[in-house]
Amino acid sequence: MTTGSCETLTMKTQIDSQFLDAAPVATAQNRRDTEALLHERRDTWPEAASTPSDALLRLVRLAEGLQSRVRAQARARFDLAAGDYDLLIRLRSEPAPHAMTPTALCRSLNITPGGLTKIMHRLKARGLIERAPSPTDGRSALTRLTEAGLEMAEAALASAQAPVEALLSDSLGGSELDQLDALLRKALLTVESAG
């Protein structure tokens, strides 16, 4: 995949990635309760109410709520914008030396090259990433974590993961979490294999 092909992302994806940093954290004060919304939909539009659509809305709201908590934690403790956090965690997930091409990062994070450039400039200015020549292709460069970036990624993930895991553990038992994980995996594999 070339850098130019990253630019063929859908308009929705471009809009979503442009506003990730600016999106407010959903709270009880500024967002309607999911169950109230579902109840209203069953009353006003019964044809749209179904177990799959209800489950999907709950899943989306759960993911958004947990993502908001993770990003708020990363911003508060480490001064990391949402995209900054995502890029650090993605690079940390790669084997040492924790490096990827910008094209692979663009594809993996589902962001435009312009969005990636902004994130990379911020992280480079903080000394968290650096550019390095590709050992396999002299025409391209890799983006890799610095030692400071590695430490930041690990600290940010640990800091964000603990409250989210506690929240899920408080609402679901161990066997329920295992069952939820298995069901989500099954559904996701079906969606991803369908293209």
From TrEMBL:
GO molecular function, one term: DNA-binding transcription factor activity
Organism: Halovulum marinum
Gene Ontology biological process: response to stress
SMART domains to which the protein is assigned, alphabetical: HTH_MARR (SM00347)
Alphabetical list of Pfam families matching this protein: MarR_2
Protein name per its UniProtKB record: MarR family transcriptional regulator
HTH marR-type domain residues: 52-189
PROSITE patterns in alphabetical order: HTH_MARR_2
